[in-house]
Amino acid sequence: MKRIALFNHKGGVSKTTTTFNLSWMLALQGKKVIMVDADPQCNLTGLVFNEDDFEAFYSDSKKHNLKTCLAPAFEAQPKLIEAAICQEVDIQSDLGGQLFLLPGHLDLSEYEVTLGIAQELSTSLQTLKNLPGSFSYLFEETAKHYQADYVLIDMNPSLSSINQNLLMTSDYFLLPTSPDYFSVMALKSLKKILPRWAMWAKKAQMNPLLTETFYPFPVVTPKFLGTIVQKYREREGNPSKGFEKWIDDIRKYVNNELVPALRGNGSGDEMVMTLDETHQPIFKQFSDFNTLIALSQAYQTPVFALTDRHFEDAKYSGVVKDTMKQSVAKFNDVFSDLAQNIIKLTS
Ligand SMILES: Nc1ncnc2c1ncn2[C@@H]1O[C@H](COP(=O)(O)OP(=O)(O)O)[C@@H](O)[C@H]1O
Ligand SMILES: [Mg+2]
After folding, report:
1. Is the CB of 14 under 6 A from ligand 1?
2. Measured between alpha carbons, how far is 52 from 57 in angstroms, rounded to an integer?
3. Distance, CA 58 to ligand 2 centroid (Å)?
4. What predicted TM-score, i.e. pTM, was given to this entire model?
5. Nearest 5°: phi and psi at 4?
6. Are the CB atoms for 11 and 157 separated by under 8 Å?
């Protein structure tokens, strides 16, 4: 099982949208995938359920979500964390049982402060020692139960202790960004923060307090898989001039500044893969999905999987419908390519 975190402390850069679309595509390509909604905003959970099902799900106290599954550790319950019972997502293919969701919870942030204290690494309190390894343990048990190939983690937009934990206990991470100045600013702060987190994780891995617990802190170094830039306007198939500048700036900053900082992060373990010409970090760009994003949300379906049925139901026809179908085909190609790339880099 490989854990892939979708991380950027900047909001609105398509972490959730990419988690949903990419997970579905990996599932269509035959991989068994569990999506984890680790953002208290629960947008990913909202994308999977329709509005009525969302309400119904949370009114049933027996249903598992990320918070209830972690409760044995965080609320010192006298039992071990168990594999989560996930929600199956119907990917509308002959392959059944390929895609699952571990739903989020609006109150997950209640665990932030205690996890933060536990991650200071100076505590010897028995109850706190179990926290830093608990997320990883839950994902491992759940992946084992479902025999999953991938766990994709949709993270919240912050530099919180939960994010520090989720990122540093993942096998890989993807960096969704948008082609604008604020995203470049976010990358600049990540260049400073990620090496710090790497040093912290190294210490946590060697700290006997965290290794001799019910949920040992995993020994893993997350590897940078690449960048996805999206939501720009196109002109004749290419990003329009204004957006092109920011896409270029992001590409240069990642290659020339971020990757070297991840390589020489000071912990002794590089946060990048050993790469050759055929295995380079991903740099993908997706233009604006336009109306497809609205339909995708309305029908809980990825942008690349929308069909005539959806267009007709939404009262689109003629040339407009044909243009949308062309876009669907285009996004099918880019997501398919992204999924194949990820499978290659992670196998
Ligand atoms: N390629 C895209 N084209 C158009 N809209 C997009 C695209 N990617 C994301 N969006 C929209 O942008 C907003 C932010 O995306 P979201 O996935 O929620 O970002 P994040 O999870 O990083 O906060 C959402 O309203 C989403 O529907
Ligand atoms: Mg989100």
Report:
1. yes
2. 9
3. 19
4. 0.97
5. -120, 120
6. yes
> Counting atoms of ligand 1 from 1, which one is nearest the CA of 10?
22
Q: Is residue 303 helix, strand or coil? A: helix
Ion ligand 2: residues, CB within 5 A, are 15-16, 43
The two three-digit tokens of residue 331, written as one number: 């996004």
pLDDT tens per residue across all 347 residues of the chain: 999 999 999 999 999 999 999 999 999 999 999 999 999 999 999 999 988 899 999 999 999 999 999 999 999 899 999 999 999 999 988 878 999 999 999 999 999 999 999 998 776 677 899 999 999 999 999 999 999 999 999 999 999 999 999 999 999 999 999 999 999 999 999 999 999 999 999 999 999 888 889 999 999 999 999 999 999 999 988 999 999 999 999 999 999 999 999 999 999 999 998 777 767 799 999 999 999 999 999 999 999 999 999 999 999 999 999 999 999 999 999 999 999 999 999 99
Token code pair at residue 282: 């991903």
> Both tokens of residue 206?
């060697």
Q: Of 136, 124, 122, which is closest to residue 73 (Cα–Cα)?
A: 136
| Cβ count within 10 A of residue 134 | 25
4: CA distance to ligand 1 center in Å?
A: 19
Closest CA to 213 of 72, 318, 98, 104: 72
Please name every residue paired with 234 in a beta bridge, in sequence order, or none if there are none: 239
Amino acid at the residue 300: Q
DSSP sequence for 237-259: TEE-HHHHHHHHHHHHHIIIIIH
How deeply is 177 buried, as exposed, middle or buried, from its count of CB atoms within 10 A (0-12, 13-18, 19+)?
A: buried
Residue with the nearest Cα to atom 13 of ligand 1? 12
Give dist(CA 136, CA 138) in Å, integer.
5
Q: Are 184 and 249 in contact (CB under 8 A)?
A: yes
- CA of residue 11 to ligand 2 center, whole Å: 7
Give, in words, the CATH class of 2-292: alpha beta
